[in-house]
Write a structure and sequence with these properties.
alpha/beta; 128 residues; six-stranded mixed barrel; 6 strands; Barwin-like endoglucanases; 26% helix
Length: 128
């Protein structure tokens, strides 16, 4: 299986904010930030269904996430991952003096990862 080239965008979401109120150790928060929103054409091109796992790899790292079909991403080739530890695996940590990484437009590849689990926050922290 080959992957598709994409640009990664990241930002805050309402679901993430609601999950954060439950606590960053809560299942609600974890499931709100461990997703990869994708255009439905990109999901189809990977021969998967929405809800199945994908692996996103950039020059800075990789992470397995749950795919989500998004009507907000109207063109193929763009994905959205909510801010947080999962997204952080993909972005350059340099800030150019701003104190905040760019979190926009990072080139990456997405591939099917149906057999790979989405790691818990604790597992990601342990790896770091």
């Amino acid at each position: 299986m080959t992957g598709i080239k994409v640009k990664v965008l990241s930002g805050r979401t309402l679901r993430q904010g609601v999950g954060k109120e439950a606590g960053k150790n809560s299942e609600r928060y974890r499931t709100s930030v461990s997703i990869c929103e994708m255009n439905s054409e990109d999901i189809t091109s990977l021969s998967i269904k929405a809800g199945e796992n994908v692996k996103v790899t950039s020059a800075h790292g990789s992470v397995v996430l749950k795919s989500v079909s998004s009507n907000q991403l109207t063109k193929p080739g763009m994905i959205f991952i909510p801010y947080g530890l999962y997204a952080n695996q993909l972005f350059n940590e340099t800030t150019g003096g701003s104190g905040m990484p760019t979190f926009k437009g990072e080139p990456a590849v997405v591939e099917s990862a149906i057999e790979e689990p989405v790691k818990t926050l604790e597992e990601l922290i342990t790896e770091i």
